[in-house]
Amino acid sequence: VTDRLSLATADRLPSGTMRVDPSALGIGIVHLGIGAFHRAHQAAIIDETIAVTGDRRWGISGVTMRSPRVLEQLAPQDGLYTLVERGVGAADPRVIGAVRDVLSAATDPDVVVERIARPDVSIVSITVTEKGYGIDARSGGLDLTDERIAADVAGGSPTTMIGVLTRGLERRFATGGTPLSVLSCDNLPHNGAVVRRLVSDFVAAVPDSTALAEWIATSVSFPSTMVDRITPATKATDLADVERLLGLEDRGAVVAEPFRQWVVEDDFAGPRPEWERAGVVMVDDVSPWESAKLRLLNATHSLLAYTGLALGVRTIAKAVTDPRLRAFAERLQRAEVAPTLSAPDGLDVRSYGDTILERFANPALGHTTEQVGSDGSQKLSVRFAETVSGTLAAGREPRSSALAVAAWIRHVASTPPDVLADPLAPRLRDAVADLTEPAELVRAVLAVPGVLPPELTTGRFPDLVARQYDELDALVAASQE
Ligand code: CS2
User: Fold this and answer.
1) Pocket test residue of 41, 86, 184, 230 for ligand 1, highest count of atoms within 8 A of CB
2) Whose CA is nearest to atom 8 of ligand 1?
3) Would you say 124 and 29 are in contact if contact means Cβ atoms under 8 Å apart?
4) What would the pLDDT profile of 186-216 be if each residue is shown by its tens digit?
5) C-alpha–C-alpha distance, residues 195 and 216, integer Å
6) For ligand 1, which residues put their CB under 6 angstroms from it?
7) How far apart are CA 26 and CA 154, in angstroms?
8) Distance CA 153, CA 453 (A)
9) Helix (H, G, I), strand (E, B), or coil: what is residue 183?
10) CA-nearest residue, atom 5 of ligand 1
11) What percent of the chain has pLDDT over 90?
């Protein structure tokens, strides 16, 4: 058997593979949700920042919220793992040393709460995906009817992300109150403002919390960020490749495209890494970047994923190179998003869209339509609602957006409920049970609260979606002949 990558075996790595000396790092960042995306994006950028600046304060305490798998992958490896880039311009594989320890909020929530309170920690960053925030889709605030959130508000050891974070802030306030920055890195518009609101709703629901609320208002900042790097789930063959390259077994390796982008609102309550030196763009207002990315990249991703799933196409790369699906993607970007988007200054929407399609076509990634197609109920509104409203308001038909929604509903209706990867799977199953007519399916699914904003669940849009559903059925039937 091959030895496992760890601090003890790291001296056997091919020279130049690891750029920072992990043993010399302090912990300045607690990260909630240390999945593949954090490892391929923020942790890699921080690793590079440490290497370039020599500032050793910024090691990361990585927290897994629920899955014990990450702990099994990274704890025996002392947090070390390999980042492999695939595609044109890929850098050599690199062992990332920035993650200094790995904690589990599921088994040791109190350790995580204590960690957030430590004064040498200046940043708590977050990647828990859209569904990990506990947002009440109707109010946009914290869903206090959710059992786990209600239990966290009531006291005891927290289990939700927002519970762990807020209890950590409470502990920090009680033990000195050093300022802190909370950095959401999920694909949600205004992600900083969203977390601020959720924390504030949590605090307001806890008795005698006025002083805590005041401290948070003055000493905790919530910068918004736009993050971008395509990171498919790691496959067994990827792990085998890494083992061959390193001569060591690495169960925590991650794979990503060469491209990466991080735009961060420069509003930090305390110190932060000088990550401009690793290509991070610091701005006053992230929102135009966020909407451009969500409405062009993520929306096109979803459109290709669901239409691809309907036609039995397994990967995004195959979907985007299918001329029929590519035409849908281009129509979405050019006819629906571009005319209704307030783009960041200097961004050419057409070439941004083209670059995105090129990145999707990367054949080395093997990013699956199934992976991108997961959690549709949490993603569609964020990715399409403004495009749909804007296009309708301009008197045009948002056909590609309607097609994406139709293809998602078709996916919901044709996937067994226990297989459907979506936090609303039970509610969606109840909605579609016994229905087969597209128009009925569309109305029933769109009536599930939170899927789309109320103004898009009645009126013209559902009719457009039903029509696209029929067209998609016809396309599927034609492709099976
Ligand atoms: C994708 C994103 O899975 C999805 O829904 O659209 O994860 C996408 O790959 C990233 O946002 C790229 O930065």
Assistant:
1) 230
2) 230
3) yes
4) 999 999 999 999 999 999 999 999 999 999 9
5) 12
6) 187, 228-230, 298, 301, 371-372, 379
7) 34
8) 28
9) strand
10) 372
11) 97
> Which residues neighbour 318 within 8 Å (Cβ) at sequence distance 6 or greater?
308
Token pair recorded at residue 150: 């209600």
Neighbours of 208 (CB within 10 A): 6
Among protein residues, the one whose CA lies closest to atom 11 of ligand 1:
228
- Report the atom number in ligand 1 closest to the C-alpha of 301: 6
pTM: 0.97
- Burial of residue 136 (CB within 10 Å: 0-12, 13-18, 19+) is middle
Indicate the Cα dihedral angle 208, 210, 216, 218, nearest 10°.
-160
17's CB contacts (< 8 A; 6+ apart) are: 82, 92, 93, 94, 95, 246
CA dist 27 and 12 (Å) reads 25
- Whether 20 shows a pLDDT value over 90: the answer reads yes
Coil, strand or helix at 189: coil
pLDDT in tens, 23-67: 999 999 999 999 999 999 999 999 999 999 999 999 999 999 998
Three-state SS at 436: coil
Q: pLDDT tens across 101-147, in order? A: 999 999 999 999 999 999 999 999 999 999 999 999 889 999 999 99
CA 364–ligand 1 middle distance (angstroms): 16
Atom 9 (ligand 1) nearest CA: 230
Q: How far apart are the first and last CA of the chain?
A: 50
Contacts for 207 with CB less than 8 Å, ≥ 6 apart? none
Is the distance from CB of 128 to CB of 33 less than 8 angstroms?
yes
Q: How far is the CA of 365 from the centre of ligand 1 (A)?
A: 13
The residue with tokens 């900083």 is: 192
Buried b (16+ CB within 10 A) or exposed e, 4-15: bbbeebbeebee
The DSSP-derived string for 33-61 is --SHHHHHTHHHHHHHHHHHH--TT-EEE
How far away, in angstroms, is 282 Cα from ligand 1 center?
22
Cα-Cα-Cα-Cα torsion 283, 285, 290, 296, nearest 10 degrees, comes to -90
**267-324 residue pLDDT tens:** 999 999 999 999 999 999 999 999 999 999 999 999 999 999 999 999 999 999 999 9
Rounded Cα gap, residues 353 and 89, in angstroms: 19
For ligand 1, mutation pick of 37, 187, 295, 357 (most atoms within 8 Å of CB): 187
Question: Do residues 285 and 268 make contact, with C-beta atoms less than 8 angstroms apart?
Answer: no
Amino acid at 155: G
Distance CA 167, CA 30 (A): 14
C-alpha 19 to ligand 1 mean position (Å): 28
